[in-house]
Hints:
Blueprint: E1 3-4, E2 11-14, E3 18-22, E4 29-34, H1 43-56, E5 67-73, E6 76-82, E7 93-94, H2 95-100, H3 106-123, E8 135-141, E9 144-149, H4 160-167, H5 169-196
Parallel strand pairs: 1-5
Antiparallel strand pairs: 2-3, 3-4, 4-6, 5-6, 7-8, 8-9
Amino acid sequence: MGFLNLKESDYLGKGRERACYIHPEDNDKVIKVVYKSSENLNQNQLEHNYLSFLEKKGVSFSHLSKCFGFIQTNLGEGYIFNRIKDFDGKTSKSFKYMVLNGVLSPNLEIELLNELKRYLIDNNIIFVDIALSNIFCQEVSANKYKLIITDGIGGKRTGLKSKLYLYSKLFTKYKVKKQLKRLEKRYQKVIKEGILKKTRLVSE
């Protein structure tokens, strides 16, 4: 395990527990570092465990950001993940940004969301934190897109539920379907938010 010095210029953004930085030695990777450990959610470890579990099962990572293990940094322990980039090399926008601003047509949004839902159902994958900001919309070629989950996979905290996600197919199937219903509601909520902010056309 090596050591990396993360600088302010590497910073991309943050969630409720972790901050995300561009890997200073690999532009195609990002590093997630816990900045609010008082909540003790262990998101890095939980996500790493769950993604490792999926990898051992041979699950396709076509709609997930892959984890490459941990590394020590000047800001604490970090976990290395794929950086989601468009075909032209630019960092992909979040699905929330795309929906909020009406960048894609409503039909394409629904098509992409349905494709993601099928992927999660077919592979029995838990998407716990269903915020649209945890989904990136990657432009894989000109005007062709794919949704990729970059955060919120597996349990929210260590405990019985996080273990059930690994060992109980029946419980996981129930949870997957429940979360997808919540994801649909969140999608509709972001649409309304965009209309209210006038960043999305009312006709959509």
